[in-house]
Amino acid sequence: MTTNIAAASALRVHQVCKSFEVPDAPGTSRLALDGISFSIAAGELVSLVGPSGCGKSTLLRLVAGLDFPDTGELLVGEERIVGPSAERGLVFQDPNLFPWLTVRRNIEAGLVARGVLREKRTEVDEFMRLVGLEAFANAYPHHLSGGMAQRVALARALINHPKVLLLDEPLGALDAFTRMRMQDEVLRLWENRRTTMLLVTHDIDEAIYMSHRILIMTSAPGRIDREIEIDLARPRDRTSDLFLRFRSEILEHLHFAGNAVDVSA
Amino acid sequence: MNADAPVTDKRSTLPWPMQLAVPVASLITFGTHLLIAQKAPPLETRSYMLLFWEILGVSIVLAIVQPFWPALRKWMRHMWPIFTAGILLLGCWDVITAGLHLLPLPYFPGPAAVLRSLISDRELLLDSTWHSLVLLLSGYTLGVIIGLVSGVCIGWSSSVRYWGMPLLKVVGPIPATAWIPLAMVVAPSAIVSAAGLVALAVWFPVTMLTASGISNTRASYLDVARTLGAGRLYLIFRVAIPAAVPNIFIGLFMGLGASFLTLVVAESVGVKSGLGWYLSWAQGWAEYGKVFAALIIMAAFFSTVMTLLFKVRDRVLVWQKGTIKW
After folding, report:
1. Nearest C-alpha of chain A: how many angstroms from B101?
2. pLDDT tens readout for residues B75-134
3. Domains of chain A
4. How many Å apart are CA B310 and CA B313, to the nearest integer?
5. Which CATH superfamily does the domain covering B122-320 fall into?
6. Smallest Cα–Cα separation from B98: which of B144, B36, B150?
7. Fewer CB within a 10 Å sphere, N or C end of chain B?
8. Do B227 and A100 touch (CB under 8 A)?
């Protein structure tokens, strides 16, 4: 597993621990993240997979700066993460578009929030074209399908040119076909902008299809158990032998391997 | 016979029964009036019959015009049953009061007598409506502004909530009209005290609903905004407040209802003008025709104001269109 960290690491997580108070028993706390360390190179697309409740989303919130670790540190470039910032965009499973704003105004939101709308107004059109939503510029979010809404959410996060894009199961609520189309869409955005991405998912196929590297987490307490580099050429074939081999390797690691898959590794 | 004929007929004109409904209803209502009101003062009957001729004339003209005017036809199709029922109801009222004397006089005059009061006292009524409007608008605006500010503060800041919420919960439920004895002592004039009371009546629901709307803003909207680079001002004015607007409008409607009530009571006890004052003045002289006239004006006035607020809401909450009905 020799990841070439020759490129400067865009995101570094070092020995991060986080615990939460147990709601039923005050005074006691549960360790959610236990000594998490990893780093992501600039322009890399890394997935975080693991069973639900393993702390994937907690970790993502720490990276976003919406929550703080008990110990350890998180760095973007050389800077410590001390709070949310426009340089770390976040897309949730629910697109969370502002329902009172049109598609166009939703995409503009980041520019308005940073007070740079006037200088960067032309970029709004560029991003609407990028996600193919020019025709829906003046539509309100409740008129959009799930896939369209998620494309708006991606454009809204990308318009700030974040150093890192955090994706918290962004395609989890979509049907299987839309999801596969959207995976290509996200890859196209990545190829277009080479934004560093950290993708939380529980869909193993999605992780293999999209990422350069997969971090596998286990739960209670959340730890990074294993790191797998996916060295398949793109575009990837979801049915190729190599693809399926990665799949069974991960499943086996998560103790879900059955007989249906030929485990030749 | 052309098979398509009925379909095209339906599209290009109203069915006959609907075209005739209003003229026939007014013939019944006013014909009855002529029968039962032979002893009524001629002046009273004359203005009532003038109303009849107007309704008859307008409804016939509309029936003639509607084949050439689709928007009018749509409106008539929607409104005519209601108008017909309203006119027949007028006839029933006439029969019950002036016809059969089932209700005691002078408390329940017939429609013709009420119309006569409406016409003869129109200047005073207009003036009273104007004064009520000014009082209502100044009190309501004041209450809404203060309510929005206090609601946003209580909803957003937990320390303001800690100190403000108990005050709101204890003082808010007191009906604004219960403050009348104090307000009359404290305020420099009756008008100011009435406007203050209306504002107080509006302030409570607006504050309450605004605060709950702000504090229930979906956390994920705020999270997303923060990762987009939003500062505190953006979070309050561009996320929390827009998210609270549906709630705020509920507060505005409740406040409007409370303000009508307070307005009428405040006018009838302290202020020497306005519809509330007119109402109690007419009652004092036992002129119940004028009481009913004032009630009719109030109905028209208050429902117009209410409708305007609905229109404002529809415009502001256009983004909800299709998701919510209320």
Report:
1. 58
2. 999 999 999 999 999 999 999 988 888 888 888 998 988 999 999 999 999 999 999 999
3. 9-253 (3.40.50.300)
4. 5
5. MetI-like (1.10.3720.10)
6. B36
7. N
8. no
